[in-house]
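note to self — DONT lose this again. spent like an hour looking for the file last time. sequence + predicted structure for the chain T wanted, 113 res
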Amino acid sequence: MAKIRVERVEQIVKKEVSLILQNEVKDPRLSNVIITDAKVTSDFSFATLFVTFMQSEHTNEEIFDSLERAKGFIRSKLSSFLKIKKVPQLIFKYDDSLEVGNRIDEVLKDLSN
């Protein structure tokens, strides 16, 4: 039962943080941020959000700095969607799986030629 609840909270966190970033955060550096996954600890104290970025004129460092500054705002907005006592602390990590996938595709294309 606890595992199902954690998975449900992970889904809510991923969806709602994505919507908050799209619709409520005014920082233009965060307009191209995509949440690819969310992992929540079993005690709900931490949520690790895996992010990637669509092409942007901003550096990854600038985007992560903006995410850090927006953390409190995102957490406060998230509290209205989570029916748990304590909203988890947010941790943002870069997800490079899309880049790895693109590199694999390129290698496979080169091999087939």
